[in-house]
Amino acid sequence: MLVDYFVLSAPAGQREDYNAHIQRNGVLERCDRSLIDAVAEVALTGRGGAHFPVARKWQPVLEAMPTAARLTVVVNAAEGEPSSRKDAEIMRRNPHLVLDGAVALSQSLVTGTYAAADIVVWLHEGDDISLSSIQRAMTERASLDEPPMRVMLAPARYVSGESTSVIRAVQSERRTGKATAFPRFTPDPARPWIQDDADGNPILVHNCETMARIGQIARVGALSYRATSLVTVTTPGGLRVLEVGPDTTFATLLASLGVVTPSAVLLGGYGGQWVEWLRIADLPVDPDALRTHGLSLGAGIIIPLAPDECGLRKTAEIASWMAGQSAKACGPCTFGLPAVAELMEKISHKAKSRDLRELREVCGLIPGRGACRHPDGTVRMVISALEVFAEDLDQHSHKHCLAHPRKHRR
Ligand code: SF4
Q1: Please, what's the b/e burial string for 361-370 (b: 16 or more CB within 10 A of its CB; e: otherwise)?
Q2: Going by CA atoms, what residue is nearest to atom 4 of ligand 1?
Q3: Whose CA is nearest to atom 3 of ligand 1?
Q4: Contact, 183 vs 327, CB < 8 A?
Q5: 159, 163, 168: which to mutate for ligand 1, most atoms within 8 A of CB?
Q6: What is the value of pTM for the model shown?
Q7: CA angle, corner 271, sides to 170 and 401, nearest 5?
Q8: End-to-end Cα spacing for the chain
Q9: What residues does 229 pair with on adjacent strands?
């Protein structure tokens, strides 16, 4: 069987239809529990940002399935962050690999005589290219003996992609016919990717890239699987999505894109952390390797600070955007994030010690108190900025900016 090992196997700008997909990869064989072992063997972690071991996510489902009547598998392709585009690229270029993953996963987990599965693809409203691609893919597979598939559309806001939002939408649609896509407190915060529907049947959510990787593993097996990383890099020419091997360093990656060596990089996106370039330049773009250095690739988002950008200013802009994205259903987002954004804005102009002290205090009160991780991520990003841009803070306290030497002298 001819096999392509890569998630982004279709050339940029092209979509692989079902015929091309099976010509290159062959027909997907029916999967069984051996897929679970294979996923555990390659130590696949979730690519939505948290990098939790995927096979361990399935344990509660396996425990529930002997008595459950249905498993709902959700592909979360609602990429809420403006600096991320990897999931959209997969959906547009290789939609069948994503559906392969969802089908293979359903077949592996649903073994009871009466149990069934259904597949939901969760997408942002307005992402019309991905919508068209995945709908065509579902139509192209309509005659196959596979679980029913459908698309659900999420409001185009950041927190729609939170796994608890996704589950809540499926649950509420089933109960009332209308999907409500806000995050909420989970009965078990340690496992937000799975909950029961109203009838006690499990709903399991995986990020789009994770599902495509499950599809790859189902096809090629653990031995032939290649642990690449999909990243979205912000470049002067716009967002670039690349698939890189574990031997690619950050320096090589940015050089290949013609990005001027930055002073720092925002790693993992708006809810990630700022890292000094010298700390990261020679590290591999690989989640496992980064973890050993206390860093996370998150959802594969890499934002180099441009030479003419001020890290504090950029942080203030992002904090403001994040504050505006919350559902304002919990205290940390209703009161905390607007305060963080306002203080960060002030500090990006003039870093008064009183504002800095207050910012640190507010940031200390927020983590762990919201229904979802949105406020925690924002605070993590802001705190990392205060550390990485400490020299800029010092300059800003005198109304000087290292990136804009004359800008704040007013
Ligand atoms: S923490 Fe914020 S974003 Fe998350 S549910 Fe609460 S208000 Fe909404």
Answers
A1: ebbeebbeeb
A2: 372
A3: 326
A4: yes
A5: 159
A6: 0.90
A7: 150
A8: 68
A9: 244
pLDDT band at 70 (very low <50, low <70, confident <90, very high): confident
358-361 — which CB contacts under 8 Å span 24+ positions?
359/386, 360/386
In CATH, the number for domain 229-304 is 3.10.20.600
Nearest CA residue ID for atom 1, ligand 1: 370
Q: Which two tokens stand for residue 318?
A: 């992002």
Checking if the pLDDT of 114 tops 60, the result is no
Q: What stretch(es) of the chain map to CATH 3.40.50.11540?
A: 18-224
Summarised one tens digit per residue, pLDDT across range 213-231 is 999 999 999 999 988 999 9
CA nearest ligand 1 atom 2, residue: 333
**Residue range(s) of every CATH 1.20.1440.230 domain in the chain:** 311-396
Q: Which fold has domain 311-396?
A: de novo design (two linked rop proteins) (1.20.1440)
Residues counted in the chain:
410
Dihedral pair phi/psi, residue 120, rounded to 5°: -120, 135
The answer to whether the beta carbons of residues 285 and 253 sit under 8 Å apart is: yes
CATH superfamily of 18-224: NADH-ubiquinone oxidoreductase 51kDa subunit (3.40.50.11540)
Task: Identify the residues whose C-beta falls under 6 Å from ligand 1.
Answer: 159, 183, 326-330, 332-333, 370-372, 374-375
Mutation choice for ligand 1 from 186, 372, 373, 376, CB with most ligand atoms inside 8 A: 372
Distance 336 CA to ligand 1 centre (A): 11
Nearest to 204 by CA among 79, 98, 109: 109
Question: Distance between CA 65 and CA 111 in Å, rounded?
Answer: 8
Beta-strand ranges (E) seen in 58-192 are 70-76, 116-124, 149-154
Q: Which helix (H) or strand (E) holds 141?
A: none
Q: If we measure between CA atoms, which residue out of 161, 199, 162, 200 comes closest to residue 63? A: 200
Q: Which residue ranges does the chain devote to CATH 3.10.20.600?
A: 229-304
Which atom of ligand 1 sits closest to the CA of residue 334? 7
Distance CA 48, CA 29 (A): 27
- 333 CA: nearest ligand 1 atom: 2
Confidence of residue 408 (pLDDT cuts 50, 70, 90): very low
Distance separating alpha carbons of residues 272 and 294, to the nearest angstrom = 12
